[in-house]
Amino acid sequence: METTRQDWRSVPAKRSSPGRAVAAASIGNALEWYDFTVYALFAIYIAQNFFPGGDDTVELVKAFLAFGLGFVIRPLGAVVIGVYGDKAGRKAALFLTIMIMAAGTLLIAIAPTYAAMGIGAPLMILAGRVLQGFSAGGEIGGAAAFLVEHAPADKKGKYASWLQASMAISNIMGALVAFAVTSLLTEQQVGDWGWRIPFFIGVLIAPVGLWLRKTLDETPAFQAERASAGREPAAAPLRQVFSDYLGHLIKGFAFSILWAVCVYVLIIYMPIFVQRAFGFTPSQAFTASLIGNVFLAVGCVCAGTVSDRIGRRLMLGASAALMLVAVYPLISWLQASPTLTTLVIVQSLFCIMVSGFVGVAPATLSEVFPTHVRTTGMSLAYNAAVTIFGGFAPATLTWLGSTGIGFHAPAFYVMAAAAASLIAVLVLPKPYSTN
Predict the structure, then answer these.
(1) Dist CA 74 CA 386 (whole Å)
(2) Whole-angstrom distance, CA of residue 255 vs CA of residue 385
């Protein structure tokens, strides 16, 4: 056994082709985001079928609470899958996350309605969300580590930016599916069974991601770390993160607040918000979302590429400052001029601003932690922020919208997050090598 071990360690680290590495991480991440996106886009119909309460607002809040409860499990997924990724490898963690996500999506797609199953129906939705949340908890850390550790030294921002670009692509796909379903089917048909179609499509994507991830090589940095240590990876990466890198974890968490909030408020929640606050139709809201996410996908890659040249902090600081001052007047403009043209412009500007931050965020957070605890540290920092500030944002904002704050609630929420993360950007620790 010792001979075999030495022979295994002596094998040079292999590097998968850049295209395959990006495709494997991005397709899986796109599936994660697609499933979350279509839940938000079809939350109104899920509320009607699984959370009947006699009042539209109460039903929708219940559906968004189920959406948010899926985030409660994310820190557990971050710990379990993050530690697994630091011990078994990045590829193994990515393979696991996509399998769990597909299972959760399938459960939602086939769940009987409340009328057919009673209390068991919303419990099945909740179980599906828990599986999705557990999977998503480990996704960002494993996928980001996988990409930056495969990337050339001068292109890490560009490689990692594809994680958030794939989020935009999944949002585009979700918006296209939502637009097709709501356009081709009657309102009654969508409410009865059409809302299930997007979830079945999400399940069909899984085999592609599984195939790509199964056939890829482990990252050179992980193999080098294992070989240079003269032993297996750290036995307790979770303990090491809290004992040796607690300050890094706290700063990474603060940095991730805006990352979580701007995505869930300005990208995912916005189509629902503009329907309820300003009277836009579902087709109008989904059309604006579709166009905006084209800018988001392109903007993420551009932002990551630029950050390789001018530095991460400058790009992040400028984007956070822009969201701090621009979101409020844009929402006010939309309220004053609730036309489709204004909506498309506002949504596109939101997506451009968001891309400047989130396109650079994965590479930045991956450099906060060293190789042997990278997926654990990243997963914990990001998912703690998402759980607290992102997951319950739709439910919180739906409730706040019915109070005196009204349509300004999303703007205030993003502004507070931007202020917190802007400070965190200034105090992030010196980057660790990802080679």
Answers:
(1) 8
(2) 9
Pick the closest to residue 172 from 41, 76, 78, 83 (CA basis).
41
- Among residues 72, 71, 96, the alpha carbon closest in space to that of 82 is found at 96
291 token code pair? 């166009």
Q: CB neighbours of 279 closer than 8 A, spacing ≥ 6? A: 338
- The alpha-helical segments, DSSP class H, found in 73-119 are 74-88, 90-110, 114-117
Tell me the per-residue pLDDT of 6-40, one tens digit each, with 9 for 90 and over.
332 333 444 456 667 777 777 777 877 788 778 87
The residue whose two tokens read 């356009």 is: 183
Angle at 422 between CA 417 and CA 425, to 5 degrees: 125
- The tens digit of pLDDT for each residue in 120-162 reads 888 898 888 889 888 888 777 778 877 887 778 788 888 889 8
Q: How far is CA 216 from the centre of its chain?
A: 23
Element (H, E) at 7: helix 2-10
Residue-by-residue DSSP string for 186-224: -HHHHHHTGGGHHHHHHHHHHHHHHHHHHTSPPPHHHHH
Burial of residue 320 (CB within 10 Å: 0-12, 13-18, 19+) is: buried
Residue type, 68: G
> Rounded CA gap, 283 and 392, in Å?
25
Residues in the chain: 435
For a pLDDT cut of 70, what percent of the chain falls above it? 88
Q: Can you list the residues of the chain whose pLDDT is less than 50?
A: 1-15, 231
C-alpha to C-alpha distance for 423 and 95, rounded to whole angstroms: 35
**């939350």: which residue's tokens?**
43
Residue 345 is which amino acid? I
Contacts of 295 (CB under 8 A, 6+ apart): 348, 351, 352, 355
**Is the separation of the CB atoms in 282 and 383 below 8 Å?**
no
Nearest Cα neighbor of 395 from 39, 31, 16, 118 is 39
> What is the residue type of 199?
F
For residue range 340-369, list pLDDT tens digits in order. 999 999 999 999 999 999 999 999 998 888
| R_g over Cα of the chain | 21
pLDDT, position 384: 87
Running DSSP on this structure, what letter comes out for residue 387?
A: I
Residue pair 257/389 in contact (Cβ under 8 Å)? The answer is: yes
Tell me how far apart the alpha carbons of residues 285 and 414 are, in angstroms, rounded to a whole number: 20
- CA neighbor of 118 nearest in space, from 58, 64, 49: 49
